[in-house]
Design a protein that fits this description.
Blueprint: E1 10-12, E2 15-17, E3 21-26, H1 38-49, E4 54-61, E5 73-74, H2 80-92, E6 96-101, E7 117-118, E8 122-123, E9 130-133, H3 136-155, E10 160-165, H4 170-175, H5 190-193, H6 195-208, E11 214-219, H7 232-244, E12 249-253, H8 274-283, E13 288-291, H9 297-306, E14 311-314, H10 316-320, H11 324-329, H12 358-371
Parallel strand pairs: 3-4, 3-14, 4-5, 4-6, 6-10, 7-9, 10-11, 11-12, 12-13, 13-14
Antiparallel strand pairs: 1-2, 8-9
The structure holds flavin mononucleotide.
Flavin mononucleotide (FMN) binds at residues 24-27, 58-59, 100, 164, 166-167, 217, 253, 263-264, 291-294, 314-317, 344-345, 350.
Length: 372
């Protein structure tokens, strides 16, 4: 008999959580000096008050080889104390916090000055940015930087870290046969292409201790043209290898900026990574977290009772309703209000269009018109 319940306390990927709802990593493009400002702090407080079990703080930069602006969050010696204020606050509400660590590689919205690194030389179809291949020494340095970033996250009170291995960023590009043309041990077959991720996992465990939870977000496929990118068959191999090497939880996502499908699809898609997540859950004992298009509590209850999937991660639904989990817990089980219009991708700060004042909605429309 399956006794899993969405609202029961459980040990999820090494973290004691109060329910199985996770706020999926959602970046905060309005940070100031690499740290959460008051607006960001308030947003996390609203989510914590809204009974979200675990919040994955999105897209935290860390590497000197990455190009990011002062309005990105950055894990570093100078920023630890500021992140600690957020984790302390969340813990006060019984909400757990995970830091998502990422390197953009070529997936940028601007052409930066200086060299942009990737696994090999390529031109990113998303923006025409050219990548220069990391040398082997640079890979080793990058792995060390990853471990150090995780150590900062631990010091800042995060209950665990999530390696961003999805959505077309650096590690996803390493795993993809389309972008990784290396001929050394970090390229070739899927085992070579994922070696960097296993090295990072082992580096974090040795830096933070073997019991410090390390999660990963993986793309089940990139949906690149002609399926030439990472495909589901290789994703399953990657998931199995990570499980065998001690990853604590795997969030199953997919898509990239250059692919046919983005990671955040429109309304007609519901639970769109369910098949892939289910397949992986049947191959490993590591907890599998499903993300993408989850809006319906009944659907999640069914998935929980009929599959080995352990938890549910949501981004846009919680941008619109930070109190969604609390609402469901209190008995109003109607579907999330999010209509997946993707207007929350607002460069001024991630906010639901429908939660903006009339004036701000107009400003947003004008900004989008100017950009088109
Ligand atoms: C505004 C916005 C920002 C996002 N930022 C990140 C991010 O920093 N890291 C990440 O892994 N995914 C990011 N995502 C993707 C979400 O985590 C999630 O995978 C995707 O939106 C599908 O889930 P949903 O249907 O619940 O929104 C972002 C999505 C949105 C809408």
């Amino acid at each position: 008999m399956n006794a899993k319940e969405v609202f029961n306390t459980s040990l999820l990927g090494g973290i004691e959580v109060k329910n199985r709802f996770i706020r999926s990593a959602t970046n905060d493009p309005n940070a100031e000096n690499f740290i959460p400002n008051k607006a960001i702090f308030n947003k996390y407080e609203d989510l914590s008050k809204g009974e979200v079990g675990t919040i994955i703080m999105g897209y935290m930069a860390f590497s000197k080889s990455d190009h990011y602006a002062g309005n990105s969050l950055e894990l570093g010696a100078d920023t630890v104390a500021e992140f600690k204020k957020v984790t302390d606050m969340a813990h006060g509400y019984g909400t757990k916090m995970v830091a998502q660590i990422n390197h953009a590689s070529t997936q940028l919205y601007f052409q930066p000055e200086g060299t942009v690194y990737g696994p090999s030389e390529y031109t990113d179809p998303m923006n025409g940015i050219k990548a220069t291949a990391f040398s082997k020494e640079q890979i080793q340095e990058f792995v060390k930087e990853f471990g150090q970033a995780a150590a900062y996250a631990k010091e800042a009170g995060f209950d665990g870290v999530q390696i961003h291995g999805a959505h077309g960023y650096m590690l996803n590009k390493f795993m993809s046969p389309l972008y990784n043309q290396r001929t050394d041990e970090y390229g070739g077959d899927v085992n070579g292409r994922m070696k960097i991720v296993l090295d990072i996992l082992s580096e974090i465990k040795s830096t933070c201790g073997k019991n410090y939870p390390v999660w990963i977000k993986l793309s089940s496929t990139d949906f690149e043209v002609d399926n030439k990118g990472l495909n589901e068959k290789e994703f399953l191999v990657i998931g199995e290898q990570l499980a065998a090497n001690g990853i604590d939880a795997i969030e199953v996502s997919g898509g990239s900026m250059a692919g046919i499908h983005s990671s955040a699809r429109s309304k007609k898609y519901a639970a769109y990574h369910l098949d892939a997540a289910k397949k992986l859950s049947e191959k490993v004992d590591t907890p599998i977290i499903l993300v993408g298009g989850l809006r319906d509590l009944d659907e999640m209850n069914n998935i929980l009772s009929e599959t080995k999937i352990e938890a549910f991660s949501m981004s846009r639904a919680l941008v619109r309703e930070s109190d969604l989990v609390k609402r469901w817990k209190n008995g109003d089980g109607t579907k999330a209000k999010c209509i997946a219009c993707n207007s929350c991708f607002n460069p001024n700060g991630i906010e639901c269009f429908f939660n903006l004042s009339k004036e701000k909605q107009q400003e947003y429309r004008e900004m989008m018109q100017a950009q088109s």
